[in-house]
Amino acid sequence: MVHAGHSYGGVVITVAGVVDTVIGLVYDSGYAIEEGESVGQLQGSRYRRRVR
User: Fold this and answer.
1) How does pLDDT run across 15-31, given as a tens digit for each residue?
2) What residues pair up with 4 in beta bridges, in sequence order?
3) Is pTM, for the whole model, over 0.70?
4) Taking the chain, what is the end-to-end CA distance rounded to the nearest angstrom?
């Protein structure tokens, strides 16, 4: 199975990609986060100030 994700969908497929049946992930302008990382961290401090 191959998952594709756009924008925030990249976060979703990254998490889903750990399943044994997934053989590939396709990111179309999507976020590819590392373990322990958040979308807010990737967007930087300007984003965090806006949502407070």
Assistant:
1) 888 899 999 999 998 88
2) 26
3) no
4) 39
